[in-house]
Amino acid sequence: MLTAAVPAGAVVPRQARAQAAQILTWTAGDSFTSYVSAPATAVAGAATLVFENSAATGNTTGMQHTLTFDTGDPRYNRDVDVNILADPFDANRGRWTVDVVLTPGTYRYFCAIPGHGQMTGLLTVTGSGPDTTPPAVTASVSGERDETGAYIGAATVTLSATDAQSGVDSVEYALDGGAYTAYGGPVTVTVLGQHTVSYRATDNAGNTSTPQSAAFTVVEPPDPDTTPPAVTASVSGDRDETGAYIGAATVTLSATDTESGVDMVEYSLDGQPYATYATPVTVNQSGAHTVSYRATDNAGNTSVPRSVSFTVVDDTEPDTTPPTVTGSVSGARDENGAYVGAATVTLAATDAESGVDRVEYSFDGGAYLTYTGPLTVTDPGEHAVAYRATDRAGNTSTPQSLPFTVVAGGPDPECPVTDTRATVWLGTVDSGVPNRVVRAGCTINNLTGDARAWANHGQFLRHLTDLAEHLHHLGVISHAEHGVLVDAAGRSGVGKPDGRNGYQALLDRSGASFALWEQVGAGGFTRNADGSITGRPLDGLGVLWFPVRQYGDFSLKLQWRGDAGGVFTRFPDVHSHPDESRPEWVPVRFGHRVDLAGSQDVWTDYEIRATGQHYSVFRGGVLVGEHHGGQHAAGYIGIQETGGSFRTIRIAPLTL
């Protein structure tokens, strides 16, 4: 749509900025009673307003201010509507500009932030010289075009004019040499053939622009689409010897249209009203069924309904076996077996038939709740967690119970080790936000939870958003840093499958991945049926290393089960080093070792992050170690054990 005229005082489009005759600057700082500086007078006509509220203008606290022109008081000019909010941490670092046209008279401006009502002032505008410059006017032609550039069926001409001084009074056009007519909106030409639209504009001072023109051709549209789409159906599922589908049948529809394109596909199950098809339709009721289907294109043509028939029979062996569910308690224990400071309860369930629907737990005799992840108990005293699992067939296991005792003492269970990295990391993404202390022993990095096991990326993103809101409320981070953290969390792969998270599998369930590793020195590893590897008793030093490639800064994830083990990082090639006569010593002497601790009965999740010579070690999603070390910025990965097992080893480079 054309802006036929720009009224005096309105905001000038970006194209007119170069014509602004004057620049008026307001600045603000820490004070909420007055601006640091403000203009008192101006000349009527185009002007660029600059409002800066930054450290450079004296704002050291991050306080927000606005520059707002009063448009409600009849005592002052009301033709400029400006309302700029600025703070040192916004997208423009507190400096904003806007182009306007000022008229003679007085403008009142103020700060609209509550409590800043004393920040106000007046701008007096005097008349300018006569306007002798005509408006600038442009034209654009739009519509569907054929391969020669001609417009099919119709062409629409849109005109636009601007005037930085007295403002646009009128815009006119003439079609194919006819008389000039006032332009009120886009002009659509449907007559077939070649056409020319001439156009001009006049400002409020009487200056008229030199006429310009736009030429184009309109051709007849092609024949209408009268052919309906082609639509097909397929039925899938497990079938018995008679061809009937066992338990369920899935109907998949597909439609194509080579002219106007498919608009929608519909289906009807067993004579019911037609419904829009979006995804394959699964029918699990026993008996004979018929699915009718049709498709409609964008020209409104609907195909003749077709149908597919099939029979669904009951699964002859219903699932009557409840899931198998296990529970374990972990944490630091004293000489009496009590957990010091905190105890973490982990539950796991499997079901070989219909599958696990949910796992539930009851804490100290309370109501059963849905289990979503490890439960950490910090209250001192005797406790018991009852647990059960239900499969998709409705079978619930007999409740079991885990009794344990927690005694006071030990570090903060949420932050047993203070994360001292300089910036906040979210998985493999460095947000750049400074890593600040939130409370004694806890920094922002301790609280992000990016090393925990999340059900999905959305669950982590909601947690991080809530955390950022809380930190902003506490004054730990600014509003701008809040946005940076949420954006970095969205770009991270936390909660996504490892393949989408940028992780490469070094050891998975396949024998092929294990074959890439090489043992040097004594001992060795045996591959198990589930893809894990278990070390054989050592008779001297031995290391299993991954010789495929070297790694610089990285995040290494693995699962460990055993009393003690170790991971070596960033060591040279064991066969090309001067100490190659004893290659098993190269990782020990020239790499960096991270010790592992755990239990012979429970798999423990570990993550090792290396940035520069800074190492962070997470166990079960909690930071348990942080130190500096190592001799090299890049090198190979190796593992060592004393009778334990490893599985699901994967690595991802860190984004710097």
Number of strands: 49
Name of the top-level CATH class of the largest domain: Mainly Beta
Rg estimate, integer Å: 36 Å
Report how far apart the termini are.
46 Å
Give the oligomeric state of the chains in this entry, treating copies of one chain as homo and distinct chains as hetero: single chain
Organism: Phytohabitans aurantiacus
Domain 3-keto-alpha-glucoside-1,2-lyase/3-keto-2-hydroxy-glucal hydratase: 503-651
Keywords: Copper, Hydrolase, Metal-binding
GO molecular function: hydrolase activity
Task: Record keyword descriptors for this entry.
Immunoglobulin-like; 5-stranded mixed sheet; 5 helices; 49 strands; 45% strand; hydrolase; metal-binding; Cupredoxin
Summarize this structure briefly.
It is built from 5 helices and 49 strands.
